């Protein structure tokens, strides 16, 4: 197998692996107030807050949390 063929095979394998990966590790968790759901993060911890501490908007699952005393705090 030539180096070029091997490189192409590795590229395809990586592309398939990335396509199969979940879009976001964070996902919303239902709360009593459905307009302000909390986030569950990849480490299985749920955000301490249900709204952004800066603007008080809904949390954004694409933004990584800041950990305060071991608890994740989500942002918008």
List its salient traits.
76 residues, alpha+beta, two-stranded antiparallel sheet, 24% helix, elongated
Number of helices: 1
Biggest beta sheet attributes: 2 strands, antiparallel
Strand order of the largest sheet: 1-2
Strand content: 15-25%
Taken from the alpha-carbon principal axes, the silhouette is: elongated
What does this structure look like?
The chain is of the alpha+beta class and 76 residues long. The protein has a domain of 53 residues. The strands form two sheets. The chain has a two-stranded antiparallel ribbon with strand order 1-2. A hairpin with an 8-residue loop joins strand 1 and strand 2. It is elongated and about 60 Å long. The relative contact order is 0.17. About 8% of the residues have low confidence.
Topology readout:
Blueprint: H1 3-20, E1 27-29, E2 38-40, E3 66-68, E4 71-73
Antiparallel strand pairs: 1-2, 3-4
